[in-house]
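Hi team,

Below is the intake form for Malonyl CoA-acyl carrier protein transacylase from Anaerosphaera aminiphila DSM 21120. Please confirm the fields before the structure is written into the shared record.

FORM ID: S-0412
PROTEIN: Malonyl CoA-acyl carrier protein transacylase
ORGANISM: Anaerosphaera aminiphila DSM 21120
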Amino acid sequence: MKVAFLYGGQGSQKSKMGLDFYENSEVAKKYYDSINITKDVKELSFFTDEEVLKETENTQVVLVAFQIMVTKLLESKGIIADAVAGLSIGEYGALYASGVLSDEDALKVAELRGEAMKKSSENIDTLMYAIMGSTEEAVREVVGKNSSELNFTSISNLNCPGQIVISGERSSVLSSVDQLKELGCRAIELKVSGPFHTEYMKQASEELEYIFKDINFKEEKIDLYYNLLGRKRDGEDIKEIMTNQVMQAVRFEDALKNMLEDGVDEFVEIGFNNVIKRFMKKIDRKIKVSTISTYEDYLKFVEEYKGE
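The structure came back. Fields below:
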């Protein structure tokens, strides 16, 4: 058996996330109590309502803290992933699990990344849409026709078969959506707070490049499938990959397919709302995907894993 841990992105958060772990696990309590960054992660995680939690600068740090905590619990039971991947901010959970970043550095960067992406999103009127029923090439051609140097639309996420997410300046996105609908595509608006994974995030990318100068990135101890590449890296610089990650398309579908090709046969999604599980089922409905979002989920998974 070859198991992969998958870490969710924005949208896989929930109010009170981690509280049941904190109340029932000494490992979880010790980790949350040890966090020492500017934001009060326990307050945000356990006692903040959904509206505040979904703000980018809050969501990112809360998600990564939860992901690190669950990973620590699994490791405490001797359950170590053979491979990892994370969706957008979830990639920092994967960087921790693979040994690239320490828990302190992963959380520090998550906090600063959230703030930087919020700043990059200010004073820009943008939209994000999921497009169904087209190809990457066709969507790229349409958004290119509706983009200028200042007002543009880009492909931001390729998460699963049949779905391509575009994001950018409002009028450019709407023109692209209208033309794609004329070609027979379906389009659903996504409620997000910024044009993430597009060139509008250039300022955030530059801030991350500066931040990374003081962060120690180590070699992966296990296979890590990167958003930017859709695969394991082959000599590419990790800092450069993660600097560009915020302003280039997430190739998560490629990452998941490459995991399957490399022999991963069991997946564990760490986060709420089954976001990645739905992506996986569109690739292959027979894939085994477990979800850990509550302490009860964790206990059930450990019991099943140890019993196999």
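SUMMARY LINE: The chain is about 50% helix and 15% strand.

Thanks, M.
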